[in-house]
Amino acid sequence: MRPVIPYVTAALLFGLGVYGVLRRRNAVLVLMAVELMLNAVNLILVSADTTARAVLPHSGQVFALFVIVLAAAEIGVGLAIVLQLYRLRATVAVDDVPLAEPAAVGRDAEAGR
User: Fold this and answer.
1) How far apart are CA 8 and CA 53, in angstroms?
2) Can you tell me the distance from the alpha carbon of 37 to that of 21, in angstroms, rounded to the nearest whole number?
3) What's the chain's average pLDDT?
4) I need a labelling partner for 12 at 20 to 30 A (CA). Which of 6, 27, 101, 113 fits?
5) CA distance 40 to 103
6) Which residues on adjacent β-strands are paired with residue 26?
7) CA–CA distance from 41 to each of 6, 13, 98 (Å)?
8) Cβ-Cβ contacts under 8 Å for 3 (sequence gap 6 or more)
9) Cα 102 from Cα 99, distance rounded (Å)
10) Helix, strand, coil content of the chain in percent (nearest 5)
11) pLDDT confidence tier of residue 33, bands split at 50, 70 and 90
12) Rounded to an integer, what distance in angstroms lies between the CA atom of residue 56 and that of residue 42?
């Protein structure tokens, strides 16, 4: 097998994932684009393990398993955040997420008067 083909495929997948992260407004689609980038990294790790024999056998495959575990944890936390955002705002558009803290209301405002 020629080692160029998996590397070019992984680069295309990673580029498609970056495009998805930068252009999408839906939070679920952004998470899917991040998963696409992680899968491209997995492809590079496994390809590098098969083409360039390292000192440690199957080290690229072990790192790929770690990336899969990281991706599963990221999806669990990311989907929990998206669901909470949908409950609060009734939308999952990334553009509508407030980045600043809201003004003091309730007990904090009464303590300052």
Assistant:
1) 20
2) 10
3) 84
4) 27
5) 42
6) 93
7) 11, 9, 31
8) 47, 51
9) 9
10) 75, 0, 25
11) very high
12) 17
